[in-house]
Write a structure and sequence with these properties.
Elements: H1 12-25, H2 29-44, H3 50-61, H4 67-110, H5 114-142, H6 146-160, H7 166-183, H8 185-188, H9 212-237, H10 242-255, H11 261-272, H12 281-292, H13 301-312, H14 319-345, H15 356-385, H16 394-409, H17 414-430
Helix pairs in contact: 1-4, 2-4, 3-4, 4-13, 4-14, 5-12, 5-15, 5-16, 5-17, 6-7, 6-15, 7-15, 9-10, 9-14, 10-13, 10-14, 11-15, 12-13, 12-15, 13-14
């Protein structure tokens, strides 16, 4: 059995205070958030060992949804059972829910005011640079074999030219990666040195077991927590209302969000600016900029989408009330599956390690995500650098280039860079 991480494990109150603090300071995207947890929980406090931390991280990377929030949920579960997991998972996102609600209201209510528009105009090129840099960063790690390059190219062509739905891209890439690992390993096997950190296996905490009855109970509770609000929403607003549609759509999105916020935003933008007609490409870019400046997972951008969609379709409600309901509905169905997945799978994580075919499927999905994020960069870049289809915007191009160079040198954090872009846009708007 694994050795306890520390003789004096934290009490629930102490851990609760830490999770509340973490939710307020978790800037920097998944990498920054995971780094904060490693420094605080492994190095400084010793609440979990290095091996167990990495093992939990590997498990969370297998799941759809925000891995940093799932990692916090897992560690909270390990420390204090289900109540610890729920406290960690909820507190990780709660501050960003509140902040982004306020920013979304300012956006829809005052977005046409000249100085606000100027700030948003400065945000947009910086966010395009962030997405473009993500393509390079993820690509270096994921495109290690010829088969991975082919999957990335196929994903880009499928979404940009053929308008293939994102869930089909994920499913196809996973099946291709699995088949490649089985029949053509030289083109699909993970490159030497690219494996995730190895960990020693250890038993799950003694207070939790992998009994089938436990899994059934958690699954049933999770299903009830999804179904009861949905039925209440349908009874209140109707099954075809914007709020019920958001509930179903973002539930589906939560189940296919492999690859992080950029991948899910590509999926959401494809549907929301197309068949659903909820928002424009420019508005999606604005939402990503606002999400970049708030603590918590970047996938919170979907809350902005839910807010804007419901604001534009109040259907008899006050627009602000409709928007708040839409935002909260979106957030609920986005993070509920993450909590259920972690609490269901945590006792079984050792069984997932070392499976070559599973690893092939996951690397296939990761490779396809590179193409999906490239699609997002091209989509958002077009609406930013050539606004309204007119000539290129010199200010936006210059700001994008500067932001990309700064990101490549890794000298400034992402939230600081986004705020700097907003200030540049404000200065331009106010310049006589």
């Amino acid at each position: 059995m694994e050795r306890p991480e520390r003789a004096g494990s934290p009490g629930f109150g102490e851990a609760f205070c830490f999770w509340a603090l973490l939710g307020c300071i978790s800037f920097g995207g998944p990498a920054g958030q995971i780094g904060i947890m490693h420094r605080e929980l492994v190095e400084k406090r010793g609440w979990i060992s290095e091996d167990r931390f990495l093992h939990a991280l590997n498990f969370c990377m297998l799941l759809p949804g925000p891995e940093a929030q799932q990692l916090a949920t897992y560690i909270g579960w390990r420390l204090h059972r289900i109540r610890g997991g729920l406290a960690a998972g909820v507190l990780f996102v709660l501050p960003s829910v509140i902040v982004l609600l306020a920013l979304s209201w300012i956006y829809v209510a005052y977005g046409e005011v000249s100085w606000v528009a100027g700030v948003l105009a400065g945000f947009k090129p910086v966010v395009v640079a962030i997405v473009a840099h993500a393509v390079v960063r993820i690509g270096r790690r994921a495109l290690t074999r010829l088969g991975h390059v082919a999957l990335a190219a196929g994903a880009f062509v499928g979404m940009y030219l053929l308008h293939v739905p994102f869930p089909a891209i994920v499913l196809g890439a996973g099946l291709a990666g699995l088949a490649g690992a089985r029949w053509w390993p030289q083109a699909f096997a993970r490159a030497k040195g690219a494996d995730r950190d190895s960990t020693e296996s250890g038993a799950s905490p003694r207070h939790e077991s992998g009994r089938a009855s436990r899994a059934v109970r958690i699954a049933l509770v999770g299903l009830a927590l999804w179904l009861i609000p949905y039925l209440a929403l349908v009874a209140w607003r109707g099954g075809e209302s914007v709020h019920a549609t958001e509930y179903r759509f973002f539930t589906q999105a939560a189940l296919v969000t492999f690859g992080g916020a950029y991948a899910v935003l590509a999926y959401v933008t494809q549907a929301a600016s197309g068949p659903l007609g909820w928002l424009t490409h420019a508005q999606a870019l604005d939402g990503l900029a606002l999400a970049e400046t708030t603590p918590g997972p970047l996938i919170m951008v979907v809350q902005f989408v839910g807010f804007v969609a419901a604001w534009g379709r109040p259907e008899g409600m006050d627009p602000l009330a409709s928007a708040v309901v839409g935002a909260l509905v979106t957030t609920w169905v986005t993070f509920l599956p993450s909590l259920v997945f972690v609490l269901l799978g945590a006792p079984h994580i050792e069984a997932l390690g070392g499976n070559r075919l599973l690893d092939g499927a996951l690397t296939g999905v990761t490779a396809a995500v590179v193409g999906v994020v490239l699609y997002l960069a091209v989509l958002l870049g077009g609406s930013t650098l050539r606004p309204a289809g007119v000539g290129p915007d010199g200010f936006a191009i210059a700001l994008l280039v500067v932001a990309f160079v700064v990101l490549a040198r890794d000298r400034v954090s992402v939230p600081v860079l986004v705020v700097a872009g907003g200030l540049a846009g404000l200065f331009k708007a106010l310049w006589p």
